[in-house]
Amino acid sequence: MRNTTQRREAILQLLTRHGAVQVTDLVQEFGVSAVTIRTDLSAFEAQGLASRSHGGATLMRTPPLEQSIRQRDAINHEQKERIGALAASLVQGGDNIIIDSGTTTISLARHLRDAQQVTVMTNGLNIAWELADAPGVELILTGGLLRKQSLSIQGSQAEATLQAYNFDKLFLGVDGFDLQFGITTHHEAEASLNHKMVERAKKIIVLTDASKFGRVSLHRIVQLDRVHTVITDASISPEYREGLQRLGIELLIAE
């Protein structure tokens, strides 16, 4: 395998398919040391995806499969629109904001078309298209490589672009939100870029429908101590309401 990420994704596929894996089999499959494989399995255990056993690991929780942006756009569409509208109410004239790529954040973009004196940076091609002719929005795109699966721009060029700016707010979409592990996404480069966004913004606002709570994807963006506000729908469970309150994170419900 070319790198750790690809190997771990392949191991996770085997783990999901068979329910358990053995270190000796994985050493032979991937041509790496037993120490390396044990490190990989320990990483899955830390995410709550697997339980280590003598000589291998057993699947504990199946990570969600990544869907195309077209497939995701049709899921919980009404909830996402309400979340986007509520998020837009937090944007004030003169704000400099980042809008992450995604199907919940695109609803925010739709509700910002009439905004005035707002500067938006985005790595989402669909979000840029939505705001391209909004007269009161100054639009900045990150450079980088387009990932067609998510219509997101990513990579070292995108990360370097962020270093020249400071933002008031980041509106961040996620694939998974777990009280212990934090917020996660499917793709390593997206997680890396999202982490850089967190570093460049004063306030971190996560937009997520309630179906993402309790999910853990392969790559962590940040732990929850970096998050200021969560905007979600009324389906959020009592466990997550209480958990966010305990962590001191502002919770806004889009009714």
Radius of gyration, whole Å: 19 Å
- The spatial strand order of the largest sheet comes to 6-5-4-9-12-14-15
SSE order: HEHHEEHHEHEHEEEHEEEHEEEHE
Which shape, going by the Cα principal axes?
globular
Report mean pLDDT, rounded to a whole number: 89
- N- to C-terminal distance: 47 Å
Task: Characterize the biggest β-sheet.
Answer: 7 strands, parallel
- Tell me the number of helical segments per DSSP (H or I, 4 or more residues long): 10
Which blocks of ≥5 consecutive residues have pLDDT under 50? none
Helix content: 25-40%
- Beta content comes to 25-35%
Structural class: alpha/beta
Number of strands: 15
What does this structure look like?
The mean pLDDT is 89. The chain is globular, with a radius of gyration of 19 Å. The protein has 255 residues and is α/β, with parallel strands linked by helices. The termini are far apart. The protein contains ten helices and 15 strands. The strands form four sheets. Strands 6-5-4-9-12-14-15 form a seven-stranded parallel sheet, sandwiched between helices.
Secondary structure layout:
Elements: H1 4-18, E1 20-22, H2 23-30, H3 34-46, E2 50-53, E3 56-59, H4 69-73, H5 77-88, E4 96-99, H6 105-110, E5 118-122, H7 125-131, E6 137-141, E7 145-147, E8 152-154, H8 156-162, E9 167-173, E10 176-178, E11 182-185, H9 188-200, E12 201-207, E13 219-222, E14 229-233, H10 238-246, E15 250-254
Parallel strand pairs: 4-5, 4-9, 5-6, 9-12, 12-14, 14-15
Antiparallel strand pairs: 1-3, 2-3, 7-8, 10-11, 11-13
